[in-house]
């Protein structure tokens, strides 16, 4: 999800271009409180269970939309400055600085986990039932869509991943 703030206000846009600003008021309010004139934040909308673990079905079936928050992991524009060409580390530092003041509970900073090997992080994510992990190449500029600079490793046992595989299989089966 892209969280956009500019002179026109705050908009939350999905990768398909759907405006979900009204659907996720906690995120929209948090973006509105940021101390910037404008920004474009890339992140993942998340709904958690009582134990604080993400549950994709809560998003899919619109359970508790008012409590959904954004895990922010990239900053593409700040105060009119295009940040996409800057290295990942620079964008992450700038994002952390933007969120440090007045972000609120609607946006959480998704920090790097670079002190452990990716396979260890992935195994732990799978044990917790997470959908997977995303790894980004240090020093890389931002590119929209899939790229060689980032990898998404999915937990094959996560309910959302299983359902995705079943739905994809079902579509192909009838073509």
Overview of the molecule:
This protein is of the alpha+beta class and about 180 residues long. It has a single domain (about 1-175), classed as D-amino Acid Aminotransferase, Chain A, domain 1 (2-Layer Sandwich), CATH 3.30.470. Helices cover about 30% and strands about 25% of the residues. It contains five helices and eight strands; from the N terminus they run E-E-H-E-H-E-E-H-E-H-E-E-H. It has helices at about 25-35, 55-60, 90-100, 120-125, 160-175; strands at about 1-5, 10-15, 40-45, 70-80, 80, 105-110, 130-135, 150-155. Strands 1, 2, 3, 4, 5 and 6 form a six-stranded mixed sheet that branches. A hairpin with a 2-residue loop joins strand 1 and strand 2 (about 10-15). The longest helix is centred in the C-terminal third of the chain and has 15 residues, at about 160-175. The two termini are about 30 Å apart. The mean pLDDT is about 85.
**Average residue pLDDT:** 87
Low-pLDDT runs of 5+ residues are none
CATH topology description: D-amino Acid Aminotransferase, Chain A, domain 1
C-alpha termini separation: 30 Å
Shape, per Cα inertia axes: globular
Helix share, percent: 25-40%
> What is the CATH class?
Alpha Beta
Rg from Cα: 17 Å
What letter string, H or E per element, gives the SSE order? EEHEHEEHEHEEH
Count helical runs.
Answer: 5
């Amino acid at each position: 999800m892209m969280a956009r703030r500019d002179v026109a206000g705050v908009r939350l846009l999905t990768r398909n271009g759907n405006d979900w600003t009204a659907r996720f008021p906690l995120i929209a309010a948090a973006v509105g409180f940021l101390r910037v004139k404008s920004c474009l934040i890339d992140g993942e909308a998340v709904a958690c269970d009582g134990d604080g673990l993400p549950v994709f079905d809560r998003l899919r079936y619109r359970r508790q939309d008012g409590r959904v928050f954004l895990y922010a992991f990239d900053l593409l524009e700040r105060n009119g400055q295009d940040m996409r060409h800057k290295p990942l580390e620079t964008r992450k530092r700038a994002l952390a600085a933007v969120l440090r003041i007045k972000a609120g509970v609607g946006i959480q900073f998704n920090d790097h986990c670079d002190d452990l090997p990716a396979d260890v992080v992935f195994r732990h994510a799978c044990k917790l039932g997470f959908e997977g992990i995303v790894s980004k190449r240090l020093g890389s500029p931002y590119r929209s869509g899939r790229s060689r600079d980032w990898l998404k490793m999915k937990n094959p046992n996560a309910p959302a991943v299983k359902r995705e595989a079943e739905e994809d299989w079902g579509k192909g089966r009838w073509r």
